[in-house]
Specification:
The complex is a heterodimer of chains A (about 110) and B (about 110). By secondary structure, chain A is mainly beta. Chain A has no helices and twelve strands. In chain B, a hairpin with a 3-residue loop joins β4 and β5. Classes of the chains: A mainly beta (about 110), B mainly beta (about 110). The interface between A and B is medium-sized, with 20 and 24 residues.
């Protein structure tokens, strides 16, 4: 079974600083997809970034980037220049056979 | 596109009553998923459909839960009879290409069973 672990229940960062959220996963597959989703207080689940496991290059979307370490089964999210609007729950997710399996989430607080 | 549309946004019902949650996926998406989110269990996949056909319902907690997708633009999740432990946020999501680009989620239905 695939499992996704987010070891940081809560994180906080000063506005404009950089923060990294951790995620590890367990799989025996070699080809898979990983995602980070954001859930602000509005409850909407918003796709932040995706990574294809066969690609060595780390994905980047504006201020969001990942550090994908396939051998270590690690998939961390870096948020640069943190903004107040980044405050949310962040979920790491693993996709196999059409099904997304989510971690327990990390609550990110942005301090002004 | 209006995205994935769920209704109602909030539902409060009494124990023993029937509850029906509704979802309209993004037009053209061929996969539809129902998830439940609770503090204790996080986000759990209940059931998913491909081209309106249920593919995997192994996450449905018990026979009180049922889901249908009569056509490509509509799905329902029904709980009958409802119990307080069913209180949660229920999300519907849809995707193309087996979810390789991720899912698009609706805004969820917060269900409270009293």
């Amino acid at each position: 079974a695939q499992t996704v672990t987010q070891s940081q229940p809560e994180m906080s960062v000063q506005e404009a600083e950089t923060v990294t959220l951790s995620c590890t996963y367990d799989t025996s597959e070699s080809d898979y997809y990983l995602f980070w989703y954001k859930q602000p207080p509005s409850r909407q689940m918003i796709l932040v970034i995706r990574q294809e496991a066969y690609k060595q290059q780390n994905a980047t979307e504006n201020r969001f980037s990942v550090n994908f370490q396939k051998a270590a089964k690690s998939f961390s999210l870096k948020i640069s220049d943190s903004q107040l609007g980044d405050a949310a729950m962040y979920f790491c997710a693993y996709l196999r056979a059409q099904k997304l399996v989510f971690g327990q989430g990390t609550r990110l607080t942005i301090n002004p | 596109d209006a995205g994935v549309i769920q209704s109602p946004r909030h539902e409060v019902t009494e124990m023993g009553q029937e509850v029906t949650l509704r979802c309209k996926p993004i037009s053209g998406h061929d996969y539809l998923f129902w998830y439940r989110q609770t503090m204790m269990r996080g986000l759990e996949l209940l059931i998913y459909f491909n081209n309106n056909v249920p593919i995997d319902d192994s996450g449905m907690p018990e026979d009180r839960f049922s889901a249908k997708m009569p056509n490509a633009s509509f799905s329902t999740l029904k709980i009958q009879p409802s119990e307080p432990r069913d209180s949660a946020v229920y999300f519907c999501a849809s995707s193309l290409r087996r979810g390789l680009r991720g899912y698009t989620f609706g805004s969820g239905t917060r269900l409270t069973v009293v």
